[in-house]
Specification:
Elements: E1 7-10, H1 25-36, E2 40-43, H2 49-59, E3 64-67, E4 72-75, E5 81-84, H3 93-102, E6 105-109, E7 114-116, H4 121-129, E8 135-136, E9 149-153, H5 156-166, E10 173-179, E11 182-187, H6 192-203, E12 210-214, H7 220-225, E13 228-231, H8 237-242, E14 245-246, H9 254-262
Parallel strand pairs: 1-2, 1-12, 7-8, 12-13, 13-14
Antiparallel strand pairs: 3-4, 4-5, 6-7, 6-9, 9-11, 10-11
């Protein structure tokens, strides 16, 4: 039987994985079955490549991955950066100043590096969950080149306040909520949808032959671009409204259910 879709774009946290960051056997088997039948599996994550590659390894798959919310498209074979959206360093100055003044934890990311000004025990636990190993960096010496993502981390209540404040700022960079406890700041053109469009063009795949599954606000552009965009049941209402269909939650093997129903 022919597959209905040639490319399957999957968000990682809250979609492919449970909230405990576990890849269940049912989801693994469904994804591998689709790949075995010819579908290209593309993981599309807010994580950097270093956090996505272990998930690809667990799936026993290889290929192209979209990381940093679309800011870096990377080959898993040789870790080559296929395309990236770099930020203008000066634009980040007010965000860094805000975090220092308000005690908000932040990190800066190039395609493969993550840097923090200081590490707290809470942040260390959080990074370990995402296979991230940040290095301490003295930002008073200036910012490194090739910056793709600036991420803040804190309680949901703290992130709600930060989000409300930053939405009033000039939109030279975009800030997007990538989870209850995270906000990412990136190049204005960086998103999963544009990265997926660029990849599809390079592969000669029509958007109608693309299925995408996600669960959060940073997945909306991807869900809207794909021929079929599917939101997880654990998604916020706005994400569900942006999708063509809704599957079960990430604790009910929603990705497996969607692949078996639509692919």
């Amino acid at each position: 039987m022919a597959l209905n879709y040639d490319l399957i774009a999957l968000d990682v946290d809250g979609t492919l994985l449970t909230d405990e960051h576990v890849l269940t056997d049912a989801v693994r088997e469904a994804v591998r079955e689709a790949a075995a039948k010819g579908a290209q599996i593309v993981l599309c994550s807010g994580r950097g490549p270093g956090g996505v590659l272990p998930v690809m390894k667990e799936l026993e798959l290889a290929g192209t991955l979209i990381s940093h919310n679309g800011a870096a498209t990377v080959s898993s074979y040789d870790h080559a950066v296929v395309h990236q959206y770099e930020m203008t360093p000066e634009y980040l100055a007010p965000y860094i100043a805000y975090c220092k003044e308000n005690g908000v934890h932040f990190d800066l990311n190039t395609a493969f590096e993550m840097m923090v000004e200081r590490m707290t025990p809470e942040a260390e636990v959080m990074y370990a969950r995402f296979h991230a190993k940040p290095a301490e960096y003295d930002f008073t010496k200036g910012l490194p080149a090739g910056l793709l993502k600036f991420t803040v981390f804190g309680s949901k209540e703290q992130m709600d306040i930060v989000q409300a404040d930053w939405e009033q700022w000039p939109a030279r960079l975009q800030s997007i909520r990538s989870g209850d406890f995270f906000i990412d700041v990136q190049h204005a053109d960086a998103n999963k949808g544009k990265a997926l469009r660029q990849l599809a063009l390079s592969l000669g795949i029509d958007r109608n032959r693309i299925l995408a599954i996600g669960n959060y606000y940073n997945d909306i552009s991807m869900l809207e671009f794909a021929g079929l965009g599917i939101a997880m049941d654990n998604s916020p209402e706005l994400v569900k409204q942006s999708a063509d269909a809704v599957t079960l939650s990430n604790h009910e093997d929603g990705v497996a259910a969607a692949l078996r129903k639509y692919v």
